[in-house]
Amino acid sequence: MLTDEFGREVSGIRISLTDRCNFDCVYCHNEGLGDTRGPMAPQDEEMSADDVVRILEVVAEFGVDSVKFTGGEPMLREDLEEIIARTPDTMEVSLTTNGTFLPDRAEGLVEAGLERVNVSQDALDPSAFAEVTKSGAYDRVIEGVEAALEAGLDPVKLNMVVFEHTAGYVPEMVDHVADNDGLQLQLIEYMPELTGHPEWNIDIQRVHDWLAEQATAIEHREMHDRKRYWIGGGPSDDSSGMVEIVDPVENPTFCANCHRVRVTHEGYLKGCLNRNDDLRSMGEMTKAEIREAYREVVANRVPYYGEYLVQGENGEWEFNETYLEV
Ligand SMILES: Nc1nc2c(ncn2[C@@H]2O[C@H](COP(=O)(O)OP(=O)(O)OP(=O)(O)O)[C@@H](O)[C@H]2O)c(=O)[nH]1
Ligand SMILES: C[S@@+](CC[C@H](N)C(=O)[O-])C[C@H]1O[C@@H](n2cnc3c(N)ncnc32)[C@H](O)[C@@H]1O
Ligand code: SF4
Ligand code: SF4
């Protein structure tokens, strides 16, 4: 496994398969590309299944043992099942999706080799859901979550971005996962950097404090040093609910435990979700060239949050020049 200059081993890869989406969520960061979602028609610049598999085969040689497929909406790719089936056997395969296509395809994805799924669900009520996603597909998403559970995906994590529009729904989402076997909840801190709406931010520490009061057990996950709160039981009790908080913003501990590189839908390898200054285009590359690009990108990885950034007078984050000169 390769290790970067900050001692972070790279054990995972996160691949965006498309920037197209059938939703228009008001907060969407589109995996670091900002609000640039394309039309529904396939885009020429999307990597082919062969491109994706070539990259996976190379990083597997370096001991990368997990892949997360995301987007845009990755299930708009008709060849998703093929890509998963061709993923090296040494890799754990997971998917993050808005869930609308799961009712028809969850079973096929499991047959292809999918092990876990995260489904974005920001509210338990159709009108609140529509307000955030600009979509009327609430019932489809609920069906998708059921289809994923029936197909044997375990766990099925519900992703909820916590920001001004959704913060009030956190308690009922927590009850929902505690009451339903197989479901877990991921509360994701809203990342304002790429969306242009800093005013929607809320203090995620309040959610941590509230959960700590409810929890019967609290654990730390190695990845990103994330906290996990167990509600109504504990880690060994099947009837309890697990709530994980993903809180990257201004969190040097999160970045210090970041073990994944990323690939954009056009095939650019990059070391950090929030950075686009280290892109390496791998679409046309041979395996030997991909190996070289991978080594370079890992060698140049830098934590994003922490002393490497400073907040300017206008509230924007900028590189800490003092640090760069050292
Ligand atoms: N800044 C930052 N945010 C991340 C990172 N990983 C995940 N996130 C945030 O968390 C969201 C949800 O991630 P998911 O795709 O559901 O997957 P995950 O939680 O990272 O991975 P698993 O829990 O292992 O399934 C992402 O879209 C980001 O908003 C990361 O490395 N850096
Ligand atoms: C970009 S989406 C791609 C996969 C799929 N379309 C979905 O929505 O699950 C991946 C995850 O990013 C989260 N996300 C998007 N914009 C965000 C933001 N500004 N802050 C925090 N999380 C965000 C979404 O909630 C979703 O769980
Ligand atoms: S469903 Fe996912 S990719 Fe689509 S707009 Fe919402 S967060 Fe972004
Ligand atoms: S370095 Fe930090 S911000 Fe960048 S991908 Fe890793 S955890 Fe996310």
Word description of this protein:
The structure is a single chain. The chain is of the alpha/beta class. It has a single domain (12-323), classed as Aldolase class I (TIM Barrel, Alpha-Beta Barrel), CATH 3.20.20. It has ten helices and 14 strands. The chain has helices at residues 49-61, 80-85, 102-112, 126-133, 138-150, 170-179, 204-214, 252-256, 287-299, 321-325; strands at residues 12-16, 66-70, 92-97, 116-120, 156-162, 183-189, 217-221, 226-231, 241-246, 260-263, 268-270, 280-281, 309-311, 317-319. Strands 7-8-9-6-5-4-3-2-1-10-11-12 form a twelve-stranded mixed sheet. Strand 7 (217-221) and strand 8 form a beta hairpin. The radius of gyration is 19 Å and the shape is globular. It starts with 11 loop residues before the first strand and ends with a helix. The structure holds guanosine-5'-triphosphate, S-adenosylmethionine and iron/sulfur cluster (SF4) (2 copies). Residues 21, 23-25, 28, 30, 71-73, 98, 120, 133 line the site of one iron/sulfur cluster.
Protein traits:
twelve-stranded mixed sheet, binds guanosine-5'-triphosphate, two-stranded antiparallel sheet, TIM Barrel, binds iron/sulfur cluster, alpha/beta, 10 helices, binds S-adenosylmethionine, 29% helix, 326 residues
Short description:
GO terms for molecular function: GTP 3',8'-cyclase activity. The protein has 326 residues and is of the alpha/beta class. The chain is 29% helix and 21% strand.
Structural class: alpha/beta
Assign the CATH class: Alpha Beta
CATH topology, by name, is: TIM Barrel
| Count of runs of 4 or more consecutive helical residues | 10
Oligomer category? single chain
- What's the shape? globular
Keywords: 4Fe-4S, GTP-binding, Iron, Iron-sulfur, Lyase, Metal-binding, Molybdenum cofactor biosynthesis, Nucleotide-binding, S-adenosyl-L-methionine
Family: Belongs to the radical SAM superfamily. MoaA family.
Protein name: Probable GTP 3',8-cyclase
Binding site for GTP: 14, 68, 96, 157, 260-262
